Amino acid sequence: MDVLIETLPLRAALVGNPNCGKTSLFNLLTGSRQKVANYAGVTVERKEGRFTTPGGRPFRLLDLPGAYSLAATSPDEAVTRDVCAGRYKGEPAPELLICVLDATNLRLHLRFALEVCRLGRPTIIVLNMLDAARKEGLEIDLPRLSAELGAPVVGVVAIRKSGASDLLKLLDNPPLHAPVIQADAHEEVHATVRRLLTECTSRPAVASEALEDRLDRWILHPVWGLMILLALMFVMFQAVFSWAQPVMDAVDAGVSGFGEMIRQFLPDGLIRSLLVDGIIAGAGTVVVFLPQILILFLWILILEESGYLPRAAFLLDRIMASAGLSGRSFIPLLSSFACAVPGIMATRTIQNPRDRLVTILLAPLMTCSARLPVYALLIAAFIPRRSIGGMVNQQGLVLFALYMVAILSALGVAWVMKRGGAQEEHPLLMELPAYRWPSLRNVALGLWQRAVIFLSRVGSIIVTLSVLLWALSSFPAPPAGATGPAIDYSLAGWIGHIMLPVFAPLGFTWQICVALIPGLAAREVAVSALATVYAVGGVDTDAASQLIPILSRQWSLATGLSLMAWYVYAPQCFSTLAVIRRETGGWKVVFQTAGYLFGLAYLASFLTWRFALAMGWGPS
Amino acid sequence: MRLDELPAGIDAIIDHIDHRGADDTVAQRLGELGFVPGEPLRIVAIGPFGGDPLAVKIGFTRFALRRSEASRVILQDVA
After folding, report:
1. Complex ipTM
2. What CATH code would you report for A2-205?
3. Which candidate in A13, A104, A113, A465 could, as Cys together with A94 as Cys, close a disulfide (CB 3.0–4.6 Å)?
């Protein structure tokens, strides 16, 4: 029996209030030996890692979601409650609970620790940031606290490399009995907390909070706070757009170069086409997102770690509340203007599951940068470069209108969803944590995890679908002596023709329908797909300039406007749908998103087409 | 006085939490966050749009509360 205990890893779980430094401790203990997934059936992140104590005892450590109480009010807290109680389906009860408290905030955190100790499972109490507490003049009587709670109490400094040595020593021989709480079970929990604080701690120094007071005076200020936020957002978007762009271009060039190399290396044929146009091109679409995702997440992780993100949410809460959301939704939605993929991944910072879902549903409505090439093509082809009143360029005005229509639609959709949702009060009650320097380890691990999740889980879906699209556009091959573009003879061409009756009421031509299919891979692919359909040769950038006169000759203005309206909503981005699939852990939201976007796109195009016809802009 | 009526920067002490209905999860959560009778608190900042939400400092923690949430916190009368 002894042998079994020695070799089987002990299942331990970290619990604690949000912002107690639990995840820092988790990162310190397990390093890169972490597995990130979702709990079955919910969009709550499950993090598990492994480590071995200096004495050689192996552990499997679960990082449970932060909770203020075991009387759960969110799915996150419900997971923590059920796993702690051993009631979570498919999740064995932890053999040891490691309850993490911020030593500088015992008044709040001790209450939860008492709840955890009363569960009657083997428990260790960990006081994090003990050094900061001492620096503030707060002395904590660990043996006394340990006696009161009936569980071992150790101090750690999760942000320091050797900060968990006391805990690791204790874990060599962990307690395997339930805590024996001295505190009276009938005593009200807050009264117990107050008594423990007076009995086990020295009076804390008052000067310690001067930093938060000083910083918050500026950061939460109605005018300066908003200016600081504006400046941060401005730099963040400069970074996402201008720092990421050269890297993305380089990745893009690298992938095409690699594809060309393979093309020259292999004989002409199916295998070569599959490799170059299917797999490599598909993998290229995945990798090209990575620079944007990493830069955006670098910012978000730093803002989150430093304690700024909840303050930004504080400043913007009222505005977002008018759309039925909370301030937390602002950054993910703003990020979606660059690309919905990192935007949707950023919704992880939204704790409220309903807000998170609504934000995910709205993200594709933010005009992402991939729509710009399509807008640019259509505007150049159909909107004359005229200035209105000598000041405003008509083309610029149309582009602005396209962005505004998308934003207003998002507000409208949010309003409808708020109406349709439950009428219950949905509280903010958000902690504004202490300011801290972001830890390099936490930021690096966070970036690494985002990259792995995106490349493996989202990437596999995108590559699979790219290969499928390639097959649709390549089979069957055009018959010998065919004159039209090859895609016209393929399954995609066939589907495009079948789609025509559906899209004809929008003023779409069969060429547009055919181009919509490869355009599913990414919105900007529609440009090169149109070039393929109209059999325009040459490089992509060339293709656009050759397409402009063809389109303005062959389509009416009404068709052009209708297609623009389509692109404001168009759900045709596999990458977005794949990331929604990954983030929500199911297909339901994917179909909801695609469905409502398709509906809106169809409606908007139909109305635009009808309006344009009435204005006499139809085909002559 | 209710917390949403308290001017910023003035210290006050909680008298009780107003539970609206038998199962007021907001009031219950306020208690779990340390909003309990006898605790001192202060409003440290007010949101820039429409004076909502409020940043409240209680003990060593700051919380952002919307006015509707803050209105459940009833303060002791200043002597």
Report:
1. 0.95
2. 3.40.50.300
3. A13
